[in-house]
Amino acid sequence: MNPDRQCMSDAIRDSLTSRIFDGTLKAGDRLVELEIAREFDTSQTPVREALRELESLRLVDSAPYRGTWVRGISDREMVEAYAVRGVLEQLAAELAAPRLKGDVAEIRESLSLIHESARVGDIEGYAKHNLDFHRGIVLASDNEVLIQSWDRLSFEARVRLHLRSQHEPRLIERAREHDEPVDALERGDGVTAGRLLRKHAESCKQRWLDRSLTTEVDESIPERQPVNASYLS
Known about the structure:
By secondary structure, this protein is mainly α. The protein has 2 domains: 3-70, Winged helix-like DNA-binding domain superfamily/Winged helix DNA-binding domain (Arc Repressor Mutant, subunit A); 75-218, GntR ligand-binding domain-like (Four Helix Bundle (Hemerythrin (Met), subunit A)), CATH 1.20.120. It is built from 11 helices and 3 strands. The protein has a 3-stranded antiparallel beta sheet. Helix 1 crosses helix 3, helix 2 (33-39) packs across helix 3 and helix 5 (105-120) packs antiparallel against helix 6.
């Protein structure tokens, strides 16, 4: 592949990814190859390559004769994805524990960065380090099928889009949920670590279920009442 074309493809991919994550591009917005090519003063070939990468990351969808558009992530999809993630990470922890016993420095580094990002309210940093943390445990399982299955869930995109959509993500509270699994892994206790990681995934799933129910109630009320401040405490 031509290096210049590859660089342009990467630049287009990164730019469109940023626009999706910051809300400039919203679910359902169409991405027209010719318009993007004009914006970046390039041919449609690197644009096409960038869009293919975004589709592999599950940030966009495409179909013949319909083009490409920003992909929406439904509450149901998030609930189902967290259910699968919990099972995969429980198994990953059990497999990884013998390898991580007494040697969790890299995972603790990611954990430290999760807490720091939470402390300063850095959503982008939290999402990145959260991905590094969970994937680090999955990689330590040394099970290629498990790793590939986990990667297909595309949780980097899911977490970033989810946190961006929340008015009060409560990052500090959520960061604490990662502490005990690391302690268990350091002891080589994969059963406990796996149970805790699955519990963490289930709590994330429950938050999405609660969000889905709240959304349904809100949509059924013609005029929304002011939110009780005590609910946010």
